[in-house]
Amino acid sequence: WRRRRAQAEADATSARVLETCEQLAGELGVGQPPGPALARVAATWPALDGVAASFRVGADVPAAWREVAARPGAADLRHLAAAWQVSHRTGQGLAEAVDRVAARLRAAQATRRVVRGELASARATARLVAGLPVLALLMGSGAGGDPLGFLLGHPVGLACLAGGLCFAGAGLWWIEALAADVDRAG
After folding, report:
1. Is residue 183 scored above 80 in pLDDT?
2. What predicted TM-score, i.e. pTM, was given to this entire model?
3. How far apart are CA 39 and CA 44, in angstroms?
4. Is there a contact between 78 and 65 (Cβ–Cβ < 8 Å)?
5. How far apart, in whole angstroms, are the C-alpha atoms of residue 184 and residue 173?
6. Tens of pLDDT along 19-39?
7. 126 to each of 6, 112, 123, 174, how far by Cα in Å?
8. Mean pLDDT, range 81-87, rounded to an integer
9. Exposure pattern of 53-72 as b/e (b: 16+ CB <10 Å)?
10. Torsion from C-alpha of 136, 138, 144, 145, nearest 10 degrees
11. Residue 86: how many CB atoms within 10 A of its CB?
12. C-beta separation of 13 from 71 below 8 A
């Protein structure tokens, strides 16, 4: 549950990163200077106050972007930092670079949504399969048998119970590990 809550917060931050890039691209695209554009973006997301302050005092703005990118879910801001740095060093238009970053982030987020949708079905199937033994116990009890008595009262039953719990736990762990690996890669 903690992992899911942390993932939900990271997803919200990731969406916020995309909104920030789109808003910054829009501000710069209509001809706003970088300073006021950053100030308006920072007004909508307080985590960017340091970036706007870095610009105001003439400090390293890409480093400030990278600092914010260290937050869970904000790693894509590294691309914005790189675009800002290249634009500053080469004189290339910042608006165009930020717009390209925003387009790339939109595509990456759409891909992540598709992958998460596919992973959701695999996770749901794993949970269903893990719950089937409980249903089998209920059906066995309903049919007049005593599956719990066998599982808890005989050494062979205890061995079956222990083995089944181990295999079910290992299966759930394996699915979650695969899904977490895919989430990290995405």
Report:
1. no
2. 0.66
3. 9
4. yes
5. 16
6. 989 998 988 888 888 888 888
7. 22, 21, 5, 10
8. 89
9. ebbeeeeebbebbbbbbeee
10. 50
11. 14
12. yes
CA 21, 24, 26, 29 torsion-angle sign: negative
Tokens for 134, please give them. 């409980």
Task: Give DSSP secondary structure letters for the chain.
Answer: -HHHHHHHHHHHHHHHHHHHHHHHHHHHHTT--HHHHHHHHHHH-GGGHHHHHHHHHT--HHHHHHHHHTSTT-TTHHHHHHHHHHHHHH---HHHHHHHHHHHHHHHHHHHHHHHHHHHHHHHHHHHHHHHHHHHHHHHHHTT--HHHHHHHSHHHHHHHHHHHHHHHHHHHHHHHHHHHHHHH-
Residues 124-178 have pLDDT tens digits of: 888 788 788 888 888 888 887 888 888 888 899 899 989 988 988 888 888 888 8
